[in-house]
Amino acid sequence: MFYEGIEIDSTDIYDYTVTNELPEYANTVLKSGQFLILSNNTDTLNYEILNYDKENLSLRYFPRGNVHHYKIKK
Length: 74
Prior knowledge:
Blueprint: E1 15-19, E2 34-39, E3 44-52, E4 56-62, E5 67-71
Antiparallel strand pairs: 1-2, 2-3, 3-4, 4-5
């Protein structure tokens, strides 16, 4: 959650969990997947991991369904 040129504070730091289950937003009985859960004292963010490799990461945000693409900056 760090962006170039943006100041951060302690509320911008999240713990993360990678899991195969996210029952409140995804029907994992029909389609298994990997999910990323970010949480801190005030917030929880839920994502489905769509794709990742050494240079790219694609996540679907729940509940809206927005897709986020990240590319490593070299």
